[in-house]
Write a structure and sequence with these properties.
Elements: E1 5-8, E2 14-22, E3 32-41, E4 47-56, E5 66-74, E6 85-95
Antiparallel strand pairs: 1-2, 2-5, 3-4, 3-6
């Protein structure tokens, strides 16, 4: 899995996160789950909270193949008051 690439979304409590998945195994990946750890950052840079969310893995991914997917990751709007923003810093995946 590659490093997440973040981009702004149209709401301050959301962002677009692009991740490249590479199957280095010898058999295809048929399904899985992607987990995003999104940090709520205050106006002075203080990390106020981390909120996890999940999404589907872009399957199938053939043996030796790679696939890139862009997710819109959001937290509840009330968690991100005016002047704050979100940063999705950690992405993990469970492959099946």
């Amino acid at each position: 899995m590659g490093e997440p690439v973040r981009a702004a979304a149209d709401k301050r409590w959301c962002e677009k996160v692009t991740v490249k998945f590479r199957n280095t195994g010898g058999s295809p990946v048929r399904s899985g789950t992607v987990t995003f750890a999104t940090h709520v950052i205050g106006a002075l840079g203080v990390d106020w909270a981390t909120v996890e969310s999940t999404g589907p893995l872009p399957a199938p991914i053939g043996a030796g193949a790679a696939r890139t997917e862009t997710y819109t990751v959001c937290v509840d709007a009330w968690r991100v008051p005016l002047g704050m923003h979100v940063e999705t810093r950690d992405v993990t995946a469970v492959l099946k």
